[in-house]
Amino acid sequence: MFETINLKKQKLDKKRPLPKYTVKSLREKLFLEWTYNSNAIEGNTLTINETKVVLEGITVGGKTMREHLEIINHKEAISYIEDIVSENEPLSEWQIKNIHRLVLKGIDDEYAGIYRDQQVFISGATHTPPPAFKIKEKMEELIKWYYNEAPSLHPIIRGAMLHTIFVGIHPFIDGNGRTSRLLLNLELMKSGYPPIIIRVENRLTYYNALDKAHTELDYTDFIQLVAEEVENSLDLYLSAI
C-alpha cells in the first residue's frame, strides 16, 4: 500500500532543505485548508475565504463568535503541535489535554483540556464511546499502546490508528474530532510528512471508515483514506519543487 508513498517521501527528503519561501507558501496553503476543513466537518459555516480572513484577524459579519473562535483556536493548536515536532517532545496525556484546551479555549473553558464526566454519543455512528469512569483507564491504554506497539508500525498506520483509537474513546465533551485530526497530523509531521487534509466533502466516507474501525476493529478503510491524503500532500510539495 505504501510503496509509492515511500518513494515520493524519499524523493521529497532528497530535496531538503526546501526553498524558504516555497515552504512558507505551502505551509500557509495547507494550514488554511486544514483549519477550514477540520472545522467544516464539525459544522462551522465559514467558507474557506472567510476562514482566511478570520486567520488574518478580521471578523466576518453574520457569523457567531464560536465559529470565529474555532478558527483562531485551531491556528493556535497547529502552532502548538509545530512546537512539539520541533522540540521532539514525546506524546503524553498532558500534551493531548493541552491540544484540546487550545481547541476549546473561550468556547467551553469549563471542559477545555478536561476529560468528560458524563456519557456522550457520536451522532450517526453505531459505536458508543465508553462511560466517563473508564476514560482515564482508556487513555492510559492508548499511551501504552503508542509506546509499546505503535513504534513498529508505518507512520501512516500509526497516525491513523492513533486518531481512530482516540476518537473512539471520545474523552472530551466536545472537540474530539478536531483534536483527533491534530493528533493524526502531529504523528505524520513527526515522521517528516506534510500535514494532510481530511476534506469536508469526504465526511461521509471518513465517518463510515471510523465507525467500521470501532465496531469491527477493521482499520483498513481509514488507513486507506489517510494514505490517499498523504499522497496528495506529497504530490503538492513535489509539484512545487
Automatic annotation (TrEMBL):
InterPro entries: Fido (IPR003812), Fido-like_dom_sf (IPR036597), Fido_containing (IPR040198). PROSITE patterns: FIDO. ATP binds at residues 174-181, 206-207. Keywords: ATP-binding, Nucleotide-binding. Gene3D superfamilies: Fido-like domain. GO terms for molecular function: ATP binding. PANTHER family: FIDO DOMAIN-CONTAINING PROTEIN (PTHR13504:SF38), FIDO DOMAIN-CONTAINING PROTEIN DDB_G0283145 (PTHR13504). Residues 91-228 form the Fido domain. The record marks 42 as: Important for autoinhibition of adenylyltransferase activity. The keyword ATP-binding applies. This is Cell filamentation protein Fic. The active site is at 170. Coiled coil: none annotated. It holds the Pfam family Fic.
